[in-house]
Amino acid sequence: MNKPLTAALLFAGLLAAAPAWAAEEWGLPEEEVARFEAKVVDVLCELTGDCPADCGAGKRQLGLVTDAGTLVLPVKNFTAFSGAAAELIDFCGKRVVADGLFTTNRGVRIFALQFVKEAPDGKWRRANRFLPKWAEANGFQPGGPEAKQWFRHDPSVKAVIGRDGVLGLGTEADKDYLEKQ
Amino acid sequence: MRKIAVLFAAVLMAGFGASAFAAAGERVKVTGEVIDSWCYITEIMFPEGSAHHQCAVWCAAGGIPVGILGDDGTVYMVLKTGDDATSVANPAVLEIQSHRVKVDGALYKRDGINYLVVDRVLADEGIVKVNHEEWGVQPFGK
What we know:
A: 181 residues; B: CATH 2.40.50
C-alpha cells in the first residue's frame, strides 16, 4: 500500500473512532448551538451572597458566568429527565468550556449542557455523569437496567408516585383513569 | 473612612466567595403552579397539571430546576424554600410538584431569568389543573 493511501486511511480511521465533542441539535425553540468559556458558580451564592465553600455539594443549582458577566442557567444535561448540577459540581469555582444548546421560549433563555471540560485544555466529558452518580448513590450498577430508567427506580420518586399516583390525585384517580383506557 | 468600609466589604465578599452582583431581592408574593422548568420552557411535551405530574416529579428528582408558573405567565426559578437551600432534587419540593401554591419570598432578576428565594409557602391547593383526560399521561403514558 502506498504511503498517501495509508495516511488517508489512518486519518479516516481516527476520525471515525474519535467522539464528536460538539453539540447535537435537538430541535428546541429558537435553538442555538453554542460553545463558550465561563466560570461555574452557585446561583444562590451569585445572587444573594449565601456562599458555602463547595457550591452546595451538588444540591444547589449551578450557573455559568461568561466573561461578559452574563449568568447562564444550564437547566438540562445529556441524560433523561436530569439537570446539569451533577455535571458541573466538579468544576465549582473553576473556568470551563461549555458546549450545548441555548433555547429561548416563553420569555426565558436557558442552556442545555451536552459536553464540558475544564478551560482551556481539560479533557472533554459528555454531560452524563448524573447516571453513574445516581447508580452509586442508590446501590445499582451504572450501566444496569435500573440506571437506564433511573426515574422509575428512584426512591424519592417511588415514594411520591406510590402515595399520590401518576396523576398526583391519589391512587384511586389513577385506577379510575386507567380502567377507561 | 468610606474607603476603608468599601475595602472591608470587598475583603469580606472575597473571603466568602460572594458575587459582586449579590444583593437583596425584591419582596414578592407569587401564586401559580409548581412546574418542571425544562418541559415548560421548551414545550417538548404538554407540561402542566395532572397530565404532567409524574414527569414533573421525575425531572425535579433529576435536579432540573423547579419553577413556579405565575398566574400572569411569568416563570420563576426556585432557588431556596424556607431554610432549605437545596434546589436540586429537594424532597420537600417533589411533594408539591404540579400543585397550585401561593408563596412569598425574594425575587432576583438576572439576564432575563426570574429567580425566587421562597421564604414561606402560604397556601397549597394541591393539583388544580386536572387535565389528564384531555392530554393523557405525559410523556409515555403510565
